[in-house]
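Board notes (copied after class):
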Amino acid sequence: MTTDDNAPLTQRHLRQAARIVDVFALATAVVFTVVVLVALRHPHGLDVRHPSARLGLVTALGLLLLLLGGLAAIRRLPVHRLWLASAWASAVLLTGTGAVWHIQVADVSHTLTRGTAVTSPRSAQAYLARHMPAGAPVLTVPTGVFVQALRFTAAYDVEVSGYLWQRYADSLPDDLERGVVLPEADDSYQPEKVYDFRRDGEQIVGWYFHVTLRQIFDYHTYPLDEQDVWLRLWHPDFRQRAVLVPDLAAYPPWHPQAAYGLDSGFVPGNWDVKATAFSYDTPPYSANFGQGRQYREEAFPELYFNMHMAREFVSPLFGRIIPLAFIAILVFASLFVTTKNTRRHPLAGFDGLTVVELAAALLLVLTVDHNTTRQETGSHGIAYIDYLYFCLYFMIIGVVWNALLLSRGPRLGLVEWRDNLAPKLLYWPTLAFLAFGVTALTFLL
């Protein structure tokens, strides 16, 4: 049976598929309406600033309805309408990917802090009352932070400079040491005292610091990642075990989306500061630091100053996403290289090895770019952008397989139909579906 003999059968199958799409579009419309009505009864409704499972479900159903509704509107299916259906499916799925990106960027429902955030003297006192070791003396030293500059120097290194200050009440022991220890700092931490005076029964001491910190960051959502850069603060007097408390009186009233403690000219590079916060964490120690007491497992509250940073998407968009799109276009163009149309042999060629050579070159470029991306993030696991690279790897392998089947493999009706039309029609919808799938699984589940 020739390719032309398959045409009526193919048209009948397309008409049957159109009727099935109509049924699914109607069912999806009913389910979408019910889900939206139920979701709107929730206090947060469908606010993109507070993503939730219901928002993800509504987004997925809305895109499915948009996709099926558009396909159902294409009643007659000649070749140009098939291309329209392919373009519509691709556009809807890519729009869904962009919508998920927007939801992720606009999300303000969470903040990144180490341990438990404290926003008032009362909440700080309540935390210390619950977590101070039994019988430990309570010597509190109000401590404040003002950050002037921050710069990521490597995947897990961040350079911070600014001011630290402390207030020592006259009721504290005279031999209590003054100062702040940053236990995660390298040798660059050499605080410089800039003021030391007394006022209202207190000694107020301030230092300027410039330090590089080595911290663990989570890059699994790169390039839409958010990081918590923190200053871990200890008091140097281990003998009397003074505990640091945030000097909240030095700041305006704190709220969850506040970004206090930062210079007005703060320039974080390719990052935006979403919020800052003081917090406490109580990690257990596996040593007594040579204090002469018999070791026993106990924890001691530690003060943190957190800076919740969100990466600006523009730089990764032009540096990573757009080059991937151009590679995807070149892979799609390779589908037009192989043909069994004898009139196009001199123009397009016929040997599937031509596609293999092009795919090898694209894979080399893609692999080098992929390795560069992983070196920049230093991620030990699989990041979101890795899945986008995997999608392109899959499409390149599929295109090579299609070329070999067309030029050297067995005669397959789907591959040979209308001179390899089916793989060309399915390329962009398949790639867009894979991109939307990994995006939804990463950010909405």
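Comment from the instructor: The CA atoms of residues 147 and 162 lie 4 Å apart. Confidence is low (pLDDT under 50) at residues 1-9.
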